[in-house]
Write a structure and sequence with these properties.
single chain
Length: about 300
């Protein structure tokens, strides 16, 4: 029980530290239309839902399943870790938790996570290049990549005898993982479109699609908390593809981080409520058990 309190308190302190050292985010947030912020928070909620789908897809390949609420809570802790610490520590948290609670082999989960990263990278490349092409070329690129990823994953699994130790790399499961990854990309495109539209005019959807593909590559080089500076670098270097100006990139990213902080605070508040209900439900059950015991055997709480 003490570990839960420790995680909650540590998360709160990290959020406070981050905000006190990034006051510009709060100033930008104060200047933004409440309607824009509301749209972004709704889109971030949908994006968070796609993370739960992705974890569900990964667990299906590992022949495991967890309750939806537990899935959401685990992903909440993961995004806190990814945003507040350098590197991609979220998958490590998920892997350790799943091994300890559900006996999911780390080797299996690491392989499936790498499979997700392969799908994420492939979709990002297609978005980066395909955003400036016709819709049918982009869809064709996704289909070709999907087929190649599936054949490659099955072939690698057979060579490494991974199927023997419990993975289910069926077409249905791999397709579900790719589907969840594509939904994540769609949510990201919508988020960036709202942000860029609030700081620039005359944008085309193709530009935002390419912009999203470039921004996604910051996931693989997250050397700073929240990939601060890393994402912007990828976006500046890919300006010839998406043709979005540097000033718009800076303004949109400040808005993005400002709104995401609000989203993290809301998620953190929800975690407190969920954890509070969980703790009080245990207390109530213990009280009921205690009341049914003889006085000499009652449980002291």
């Amino acid at each position: 029980m003490w570990l839960r309190y420790f995680i909650i308190i540590t998360t709160a302190l990290l959020l406070y530290f981050y905000l006190t050292h990034n006051a510009a985010l709060l100033h930008k947030l104060a200047e933004t239309s409440p309607i824009t912020i509301s749209k972004l928070l709704i889109l971030y909620s949908l994006w968070f839902g796609t993370l739960a789908l992705i974890l569900q897809a990964c667990l299906r390949i590992c022949r495991q399943n967890i309750p939806t609420m537990e899935n959401l809570i685990l992903n909440a802790y993961s995004i806190f870790s990814n945003y507040l610490f350098p590197g991609q520590s979220g998958p490590v948290i998920r892997g350790i938790y799943l091994k300890g609670r559900y006996k999911v082999a780390l080797r299996n989960f690491i392989f499936v996570t790498l499979l997700y990263y392969l799908a994420y990278a492939g979709v990002s490349v297609i978005l980066l290049v395909g955003g400036m092409r016709s819709w049918w070329q982009t869809i064709l690129g996704i289909l070709l990549f999907s087929t190649g990823a599936f054949i490659g994953a099955r072939s690698y699994a057979r060579k490494q005898h991974i199927n023997i130790i419990g993975l289910d790399l069926s077409l249905e499961n791999v397709a579900f993982l790719l589907f969840a990854t594509c939904l994540q990309a769609i949510c990201q495109i919508a988020i960036y479109y709202v942000e860029l539209s609030s700081v620039a005019t005359g944008l085309k959807v193709g530009q935002v699609i390419s912009y999203t593909g470039a921004a996604n590559f910051a996931l693989f080089v997250s050397l700073t908390p929240g990939a601060v500076g890393i994402r912007e670098t990828f976006l500046f270097f890919s300006e010839n593809l998406h043709h979005i100006t540097g000033s718009a990139i800076v303004a949109a990213n400040i808005l993005d981080r400002s709104t995401f902080i609000v989203f993290l605070v809301l998620v953190f508040s929800a975690l407190l409520v969920v954890r509070g209900k969980y703790i009080f439900s245990i207390k109530k059950e213990m009280d009921e058990i205690s009341s049914e015991l003889p006085d000499a055997q009652q449980v002291q709480i």
